[in-house]
Structures
1.
Amino acid sequence: MINPVEALARASGASAPAIRLILSVLLAYPLGLFYRQLKGGPTVRNLFIACTGVSIVLFNYGTDLYHSMLAVAVSFLCNTFLRTSSLMVPVSFTYHMGYLLIGYYYTTSDTYDIKWTMPHCVLALRLIGLAFDLSDSRRKEAAGKPDDKCIPTPTLLELIAFTYFPASVLVGPQFSFLRYRRFIAGAYEPHTQGAPAYATKKFLQGVFYLVVNQVGTQYLPDAYLMSSEFAEESLLMKHIYMGCWGRITLYKYISIWLLAEGSAVLFGLTYIDAKPGDREYSSDELSGCSNIKVGVFENTSKYGHYVESFNVQTNTWVANYVYKRLRFLNNRMLSHLGALFFLAIWHGFHSGYYVTFLMEFMVIHMEKEVEPIFAKNEKLQQLLQQQPLLRALVFIGLKFYTIVWAGWCLVPFVFLSFHKWWSIYTTVRFTGFILFFGGNAFLPALLRAVLPKSSSPSAAKTTPPASASTDASAGVGPAVKKDN
């Protein structure tokens, strides 16, 4: 009998694991529609979610399901027997991260493989975050200061359903147990009547980006950056090709996140239940689990916009559970570095991950130093307001900067192994290292000399206030929503 997955893989040129992944993400849509019609209380709902989510992992990874099952069992034991102990978070963190890293050690290769470690990295963050939230809740209760963010210890069925939520079990997004409990209790149902239309929008956006990625990779595949044809191009064209390649590559991630978000919307998980005053939002806003802010991403004028818009829920998780927990260092730069190091090791051991996140740190730091210098120069701001042509040239320059150098920073993340990304960087003469390391060392002082800060009172009006994302996570991610 013909295996339909293998047949689709041969017809599309994709690998069988990639076909299973796409089919599983799409399968969550009819499951979400069925869930919306499901009658019964939280037990019935949890049972449906647990069974379908486990089945999806089984379909993708077969007997490797035991890795995630073991993680759930260990979390249940920790949550049950260490619920009031200060050891709960250290034990949970050490086990889940240790198991994931051991998995990377034994399964890693020179390419990005779709193996059981991919959903396991999503699971590890979800269960570690749960341990933090339970610990914080018990601490508040012990101090006699419980609030509506406190959560009870989940039952085994709740824990399995929370872990294997079918719309996010393979590729995310991350969400808290507090959100899940409110969802399963039906608190979001009055606000999710428009979910099918919103989910359709996300689905169509995901399909669009997937098509663009698939078409684009036919013209600019990964292999082109290591080819003799690429090496023979002029330095300028190499950077343009690298930028276009990077953009096309990012669309792969965007497409899968949009498709996954659409199915989560359809289930009804994504309602934003922020308190009035926490943020401005529509009473029926359904973007609470969005992993990509498409508008911000497509209108980037600085690298910080990529951080703000890309992999939002993971960045929020890191801001909550890593960056903020490093406040004892009393140094935002060290906290930022610690958060980025966590992100790198969470991805794996390949040198490319560490280089990419180091470059992110360098770029964000440079932009934070340089941007206020431009903003505080009154003459420059007035000139930009008065000269449309100059504004257009600045816009083109910033788009070139963000697209080209995002491609540069993405090279190690995609090619992973030292000999591959080093070879590509050699071909383009290490220009990114020169720009960003040199930019951090010399550019701020040079710009302060050329563009001195205006001393007039009106200059202060041109200076934008520090963004919430800068204060919350120093470039690790966007401002943290208090309900997530």
2.
Amino acid sequence: MSDDGPMHAQSQEAGHELSDSGISGRSTTDGPQDAPEQKHHHRRVSSFRNRRSTLSGTQQELWERRWPEIGAEARDAAGRPLTRDIAQWFGRRAPVVLEIGCGTGVSTLAMAVEEPHLDVVAVEVYRRGLAQLLGAIDRNDVTNIRLIRGDGVDVLEHIFGTASLTGVRIFFPDPWPKARHHKRRLLQPETVALIADRLVPGGVLHAATDHAEYAEHIAEVGDAEPRLRRVADTAAGALPISVRRPETKYEGKGLQAGRDIAELVWVRTHGMTE
């Protein structure tokens, strides 16, 4: 969950502990979140933390009404990964942006509204955060967002193919600051390599974090991927997607506390080793 604050555990505004990233990637500070219902049979270490929560009556009604239309699970009840025709789901063919760990979707919604020519697939583990984003989509009549509940790497592996994404956004993923937990971090070399494969030439990987050591790790991993080239802020205007994020409530608190926000942007090169 990523768009609502210092991404440390999966989405703060959603009630996570501060993390946006999710495969999820964040944790929640304002309350426990619901644990993923899917059973994962792969051996990869997940980057999200289990949380339990319930939806309010209004959220549950909205969920039952809108989720079948614009929401989907990454895996079925037996734990099998699901596939989906993205163009059919949106009812059009347009450039697609994947946001991993959308949290409560503050950034997701704002950026989608500013870029109606893009289709945005937002992935989150925690249902409460998705319910809040679902409500915002419904109130604002936004048509270019779809939601997936589950593991972001599952989505990259099973729903999107090579050169199918114009952008991947990962805002404030859980930094898992303790050394023994670093293996849980979402942005590892293998995941960045998978993202590079899924991006079209010229496509964008945009990551943000307020954790200094994790920023160094992300920069090192991204720069080491031969299919990605780092982009300076001055070049951002030429990118196919916006890299301007709205400041969220929790991000603002982090800035007031003196935490710097690292914005890391790469583009997919045209060749394998350019």
3.
Amino acid sequence: MITNMRCLSFTAIFQALAILLVAVAQVGAGPLSVQRRKALDVFNPVIVEPTASSNWVAGAQELVSWDTSDAPQSISNQGHVVLKTTPADSNEVSQWRHLAGPFDLTIGQINVTVPNDMITGQYKVILFGDSGNESPAFHVDGVNGTDGQQPPSDNDDPFGTDESHTHNFLDIFKGN
């Protein structure tokens, strides 16, 4: 019976030690969690260009720029620039066209080529990375869209990836 008590005591001590080691490991992981959170800080830059008075032309090179003055030291996500229609009718679905990416968000600007087949109308630039920032609506001179045609769209794949229907947006925001 004393042997069983010694075994029980040894087992209890071993379990307590194991719990203690797990607890210490969790406490040790605390700073790592803080570092990971810092890496995932939301960088919400203001889009500087295009402005509401911008007028882009289909086929032309245009500048998209954003303010990086308050950027965190470490941005884990890569940037993407998407051009989005701004339909006049609230029942219409916005169309998306991938213009650039992936790129480092700390660069603050990127030149994009406006697709040749864009229909004349109002558009917004969306800067994706840690967050999705919209520019003000601006005008694009493109092809005549009076015949009811819709602009070509990357709606199923706004980031221009090869895995359009299965790609997880969180993977894009993580930089994968």
4.
Amino acid sequence: MDYELRNIKDFLQLYNRITDLCFNSCVDNLFGRDLTREEISCADNCVLKFTNVNQRLLKVYVGVQADINQKRMSEFEAQQAKLLAEQQQQQQQTAVQLTPETATTSNTTESPAV
């Protein structure tokens, strides 16, 4: 539901931007109710250009975002591998530290019996 609301909000913001931009660029006369042919043509061209630019930007964004996601994934995997290697190294160090203690413990228990 939250995703749908965000999409509606984004669409309305885009619509408001187009309306504001094209109105300010194309409408010259506020004394009549109807638009002139020139104003209609200008508004049509304005909306068409804005839409085309927006579509191109979205295509570039999608392509760049895919590259960014791939880079982030590679960085994440490298970080995970590093953490795993550090964890294995710590486990090996712990195992090495425990090994001499068990050897000395077994030596001390065997000595009194002899």
